[in-house]
Design brief:
Elements: H1 2-27, H2 34-56, H3 61-76, H4 93-100
Helix pairs in contact: 2-3
Length: 101
């Protein structure tokens, strides 16, 4: 049983490593705007709720693990806490329009 658990642990570690690049490629890139981060946080909350519901329903461990792995992958795409986003990409046209008026 311990050998099976160890093998499962190794397989589980390899699976997210393969899935993460595919998901990252599908997502395109890490979030660069506050709105993209907000969207990612909403997806994380939704996935977290799903994990919580699966655990409450005592779902199969493999199903829960898959949901948790997806949640962890989403969280890994969050920028570090305290990250600021360059104002130049969001608002330079607004002040220029206001100054021209």
């Amino acid at each position: 049983a311990a050998a099976a658990a160890a093998a499962g642990g190794k397989g589980a570690a390899a699976a997210p490593a393969k899935a993460a690049p595919a998901k990252a490629a599908a997502a395109g890139k890490a979030p660069v705007t506050a709105q993209e981060v907000a969207d990612l946080e909403a997806a994380i909350k939704t996935q977290g709720d799903k994990v919580r519901d699966l655990k409450a329903a005592k779902a199969d461990k493999a199903v829960i693990k898959e949901a948790v792995d997806k949640l962890l992958e989403l969280k890994s795409r969050l920028p570090p806490a305290g990250t600021t986003f360059p104002a130049a990409t969001i608002s330079p046209a607004q002040p220029a329009a206001a100054a021209a008026a």
